[in-house]
Model the fold of this input.
Amino acid sequence: MDRLKKQLCAALKARNVGGKTPIPEAGLPLWQAFGALSRARSYNPHGPNPITWEALAAWSQLMRVPVEPRHADIIMALDAVWIKDAYRTDKQAPEGVKTLPPMSQHPINAALLDAMLG
Done:
C-alpha cells in the first residue's frame, strides 16, 4: 500500500502543476473517492479546509463504499498533497495577467475597515 500511496501522491503533484501523469489502475477507486470528497470540501476566508475524517466516514456510509483504514490513509495523504499545493505561496499568474500584491501597501484604519465590512 505504501507504493500505491506514493504513486498516487506523485500523480497528484504532477497534475497540480499541469502534468498528465497516469493514475495507477489499482488506485482508481481511491482517486475517485478523493475527487468526490474534494468537490464537497468546505472553504474558509483563507482558502480550502482539509477533508475531515467525519466527511470521509459520512461519504463512505452514504455511498455504501466500505473504506478500510489503509484506504483512508491514502485518501488523507492525497488530501495533504492537495492542501499543500492550494496554500503554496510561490504560484505565478499566467503571462499577461495582472495581479494584486499579496499584502496591501496601506495600513488598516477605521475608515478602511468600515469600507470593507460595511
Observations:
- The two ends are 52 Å apart (CA to CA).
- Residues 69-86 form the longest helix (18 residues).
- The first strand starts at residue 43 and ends at 44.
